[in-house]
Automatic annotation (TrEMBL):
Protein name: S2543 protein
PANTHER family, A to Z: SOLUTE CARRIER FAMILY 25
Originating species: Polyodon spathula
Transmembrane segments: 103-121, 158-181, 201-218
Listed SUPFAM superfamilies: Mitochondrial carrier
Gene: Slc25a43
Pfam families: Mito_carr (PF00153)
InterPro entries per record: MCP, MCP_dom_sf, MCP_transmembrane
Length: 341
């Protein structure tokens, strides 16, 4: 989502936050099914569609939003850290004209994502634990209770179990993104500067699908490591027991074959289009509301520009200009009245 200088920084942050919360909440059922399939709980033993049925049958409709509050709350610190890191990395690698290569931009995004994920990693562990537990007989009564229990019973390092896989998974993720973006002009048969918003949306979904598919085995092992705990019933419901990261890879391949590392990929790919679609559409709606409030467009239902408004002005500059024009108009009216008398 590109920054629009007609919006203030707080408006951009709030719009992005609303878009993120809305899209995550709407696609939470797919995320829940993806994670229980990755971990290998009993819900996922008979396929994707049956996993939806089993979750609903055993725990009810609310179970599809397990861990959603944690996922939404972590959006703000994650986005803040990611944006700060990305901007810092981009500024370090810009040339004298302020340009940066596509490869370095993708690497900058990956590094920013790694740093942000590591900073708030405990919340990801908590989200996984809340999803894999039985909501009708929970081991954790909420996010804060989960943090306290994990820290007290398993130690502080348990909150960072599997964190190294975040770094390792960023390598195939970056490569997948780069491979897609360098071939987009060939795919569409035109230069990237001419891409329409719809084409950019398709490009984003395609890049996310390829990148996440390549990095999915690392996420699968990470989820299993996050979920496995000796203090939880059935070791957290993990389908294989292991002693560490390498052993987890070995046990998954031994028990389920090499493709077992991609369990849950279908739900993940199904989530991409509605997730990004809802995120961008809700962000654009919030953006229109802000632009209407700032005076740049005539209605929050369209992007029709307000007549006579300089769109190059920033919000503060536009407000100051309007204040100046009002003051001039008021003084001219006062002068006309005094001359009349």
């Amino acid at each position: 989502m590109k920054r629009d200088n007609r919006m203030t920084a707080s408006q951009s942050l709030i719009s992005a936050g609303i878009a993120g919360v809305f899209s995550r909440t709407a696609t939470s059922p797919l995320d829940v099914v993806k994670i229980v399939t990755q971990v290998g709980t009993f819900h996922s033993k008979r396929g994707l569609l049956n996993a939806f049925h089993t979750v609903y049958q055993k725990e009810g409709l609310r179970a599809f939003w397990k861990g959603n509050s944690v996922a939404c709350i972590r959006l703000v610190p994650y986005s803040a850290v990611q944006l700060a890191t990305y901007n810092r990395f981009v500024h370090l690698h810009m040339d004298d004209l302020g340009h940066i290569s596509q490869w370095r931009a993708i690497v900058a995004g990956s590094v920013a994502g790694i740093v942000a994920a590591l900073v708030i990693y405990p919340s990801d562990v908590v989200k996984t634990r809340l999803i894999v537990q039985n909501s009708l007989d929970p081991a954790y009564r909420g996010a804060l209770h989960a943090v306290r229990c994990i820290h007290r019973k398993e130690g502080f390092l348990a909150l960072y179990r599997g964190a190294s896989l975040t770094v390792m998974g960023a390598i195939p993720f970056s490569c997948g993104s780069f491979l897609v973006y360098i071939h987009l002009d060939k795919l569409w048969g035109e230069p990237s500067v001419r891409f329409t918003p719809l084409q950019n949306f398709i490009n984003g979904c395609l890049a996310a699908g390829v990148a996440q598919t390549l990095s999915f085995p690392f996420e699968t092992v990470k989820r299993k490591m996050q979920a496995q705990s000796p203090v939880l019933p059935h070791y957290g419901g993990v389908d294989v027991h292991f002693t560490g990261m390498v052993d987890c890879f070995r046990q998954v391949v031994k028990a389920q074959g090499f493709l077992g590392l991609w369990n849950g990929l279908t739900a993940n790919l199904l989530k991409i289009v509605p997730y990004f679609g809802l995120m961008f559409s809700s962000f654009e709606f919030c953006k229109r509301v802000c632009l209407y409030k700032n005076g740049y467009i005539v209605s929050p239902l369209s992007y029709q520009l307000a007549p006579g408004v300089d769109q190059s002005l920033r919000p503060q500059e536009l407000r100051e200009l309007r204040r100046l024009l009002r003051n001039r108009s008021f003084k001219s009216e006062q002068s006309a009245v005094s001359n009349r008398w």
